[in-house]
What does this fold into?
Amino acid sequence: MSDFTTPQESFWAGEFGDTYTDRNDGPRWIASNLSLFSRILTRTSRVGSVLELGANRGLNLQALNQLLPEAAFSAVEINEKAVQELRKFEWLEVQHASILDFKPVTKSELVFIKGVMIHLNPEVLPQVYQLMQDASARYICIIEYYNPSPVTVPYRGHTDRLFKRDFAGEMMRAHPGLKLVDYGFVYHGDLNFPQDDLTWFLLEKTNA
It folds into this structure.
């Protein structure tokens, strides 16, 4: 995998992505994800298949697999080191690809993305919104940093690698058939189950 269309893809497929994969590991992350996804899933029903776009080493999917043990799980990930970790899970179907190249062949009842849109080139966001719309049979969940207007933020000494905006609002404007089911915020200073100041939005297809 070397023919990327954006510098952000190369950044995450390479050494920086490797370091990120090594840095983000441990049971405390899974515990926080169990708390987060249990809240989100209470607003859904009969989720039997889940797709994560940009899964890294699978900390989100490990939590969801405990909450939905009968569901089918799939993941798309650009970084090879992270893919090697994902392939350790026999219950998970893994695609080693950029999400900009990924073409879903089936629909999943829940498609979600967490901490990934913030690192994408803003020019490709309409393509990602369309991908999530096409890949979802019913629910879409966006879990990212929120800002009411687009801003660029320095990220670990790098520029043009972290962007905040109203991803969910843009998604719903691009696809009016989606309705907002629920949303929430998880503070980095939560005493029990912190997340990185993430805001989540659960959307549902009105024709599902």
